[in-house]
Write a structure and sequence with these properties.
9 helices; two-stranded antiparallel sheet; about 60% helix; 4 strands; about 190 residues; globular; about 5% strand; mainly alpha
Length: about 190
């Protein structure tokens, strides 16, 4: 649960609903069966881009504050958990694509994440053999704000690369959709 300033508590579902605001039906696993892998890839890549944009906006605490509690707050924890869900969905939906560009960006996303495995493990996020992420909630909850902020800040390479590959993946998927619709492989501009 995440606490917001008004005293209300929100779960990571709040963030998932935001990330998948264009199609919230694909959040639930049983609803995902109603969509093709291509449709899921499109929705997941859009959601991953939103999640990557959200992470640097978390409140990691003031650098000037002298507090005993340097652990991440519930809002940050919930948004990270939602990010991990979206990331895993993106890998899952993209892995069976026959489109070269989609496969290329899925592979680049996985490789880039592996390159940051140590940083992620320091805050309780591990990379499984299939490339998916797993959150150890207990470790994440007691992670130091500065470590979490370092990996998810807007100037960190991990955040930059996730956003870059999510956008490129979404572009590739849009082109794949258009090529399947009309056989012409049209290129379009992405607006997010």
């Amino acid at each position: 649960m995440a606490k917001i300033s008004s005293g209300l508590y929100l779960s990571s579902d709040f963030f998932l609903n935001n990330f998948y605001s264009n199609n919230r039906n694909v959040i639930k696993k049983n609803n995902r069966n109603d969509y093709s892998k291509l449709e899921l890839s499109y929705e997941d890549s859009r959601a991953l881009s939103k999640a990557a944009k959200r992470l640097p906006q978390n409140d990691y605490g003031s650098k000037e504050e002298d507090t005993k509690d340097d652990n991440i707050n519930d809002t940050t924890k919930a948004s990270i958990q939602a990010f991990v869900s979206v990331y895993n969905n993106t890998l899952d939906s993209g892995k069976s694509s026959t489109d070269y560009d989609t496969q290329h960006y899925i592979k680049r996303l996985r490789t880039m994440t592996k390159n940051h495995a140590d940083e992620l493990e320091d805050i309780g996020i591990t990379i499984e053999k299939d490339g998916k992420l797993t959150v150890n909630e207990d470790l994440l909850k007691i992670s130091d704000n500065s470590k979490v902020e370092k990996i998810f800040s807007s100037d960190n390479e991990f955040s930059k690369q996730v956003m870059k590959f999510a956008n490129k993946l979404n572009f590739a998927i849009q082109n794949d959709i258009y090529s399947q619709i009309n056989g012409k492989g049209l290129h379009i501009n992405i607006t997010m």
